Amino acid sequence: MARNKFSVGQIVDFDLRAVPKFETSGPYKVTRVLPADDARSQRYAIKSLTEAFERGANEYKIVATG
Question: What domain count does the chain have?
């Protein structure tokens, strides 16, 4: 079983090389590790302090900050 790149509580943001610029910029906190779509696509629930909702993000679309 592969390890997750990010852990719950870690601060991340969208990788501007992989995500269009219209996404709301972070930072975001990883709140949950979600079931993977497939072996190459781990997903995470992330939450911004400026938004009232969580959003899902594929691992390749986010990067660690700080």
Answer: 1
Q: How far apart are CA 56 and CA 45, in angstroms?
A: 5
Q: Is residue 35 domain-resident?
A: yes
**21 is a domain residue:** yes
Within-domain flag for 50: yes
- The neighbour count for residue 4, using CB atoms within 10 Å, is 14
Give this prediction's pTM: 0.83
Q: Residue 19: pLDDT band by 50, 70, 90 thresholds?
A: low
Question: What domain range includes position 23?
Answer: 11-64
Residue 21: Cβ-neighbour burial (10 angstroms; 0-12, 13-18, 19+) = exposed
Smallest CA-to-CA distance from 31 within 43, 51, 45 is with 45
- Tell me the C-alpha distance between 25 and 53, whole Å: 14
